[in-house]
Amino acid sequence: MDAVAEIGEYERTALAAIAAAADAAGLEAVRVEFLGQKKGQLKELQKLLGQVAPDQRPVIGKKFNEVKARVTAALESRQSTLDRPASAAAGIDVTLPGVPFQLGKRHPLSQTMAEFKLIMSRLGFDAVDGPEIEDEQHNFEALNIPPIHPARDPLDNFYLSVADRRTGGPLLLRSQTSTVQIRVMENTPPPVRIVSLGRVYRPDTIDATHSCMFHQMEGLWVAERVTLADLKTVLRLFATSYLGDDVAIRFRPSFFPFTEPSVEVDMHWGDGWMEIGGAGMVDPNVLRAVGYDPECVTGFAFGLGIERFCMRRHHITDIRRFYENDVRFLRQF
Ligand code: PHE
Questions:
Q1: Helix-strand-coil percent breakdown of the chain, rounded to 5?
Q2: Strand duo 126-127 + 192-201: pairing
Q3: 302 touches ligand 1 (CB under 6 Å)
Q4: 167, 298: one domain
Q5: Taking the model in full, what pTM does it have?
Q6: Whose CA is nearest to atom 4 of ligand 1?
Q7: Does residue 175 line the site of ligand 1, with CB under 6 A?
Q8: Does residue 299 form part of some domain?
């Protein structure tokens, strides 16, 4: 057999043996057999090359070197395959880059509420929760809203088709977080200083700025000698903490059955005034309804819409975005 044929034969058998090696030990035996420096087939081949005619040597030598390189590469490649853990055999290649894990984010409204709670806690207000399903006592009666008041129109509220199991009275989705004022004062002697953040429900035609469910932050501070000036101070501190020092607060006279006097609260932020909610001094009738003595304590209450702050800060132009759970929108915050 001539040298070229010998080299070809060497390559074929070496590659076949490498492919057939079942484990690292088997492959090592193949390496010694075909690439070993002291004995083995490579050595035999080299001996043969020594006998080739001098004018043939450069060509045959080049071929030999190429084949040796190919066999070495095949061996190394097989080695790295055998080195991989068993998971590779199961079709899982742990050396591949991982699939990136999409981290979730808190909903922009949840972020806003967490920030509001933090600001108010620095001003000494504890955060409390109240039920979203309410009775007329807490949503209206104790808040000095009489049965003939238009706010109690069944068409303006979400009444439930089931009655209160305890009293047999009607139940509704709360239309305001002011209900929590009553729940707190019923159970706590003064002084109280709380905020309550959560959902409220009102039938409404849904559009870019209206939703039949939205969020409010209720605030209540009842103690000796709390005044309207305290209300304005707290609201101003709240607004500047959230938005910065160039924010101003303005009161306009208004009416709520549960506060006297009552005000609408506007906030100057950027290029204009924006209405942020209602507020006032807790009406003596409300204090009496929960067993407080209006001769001894006074207090203020406020209720702010949360969506508006969040929309304004993040330049969100449609309130419906908050409730659609579109991750492309939610991921941005
Ligand atoms: N509950 C009122 C509303 O939803 C806001 C308010 C709260 C007004 C507390 C006065 C005091 O419109």
A1: 45, 20, 30
A2: parallel
A3: yes
A4: yes
A5: 0.72
A6: 176
A7: no
A8: yes
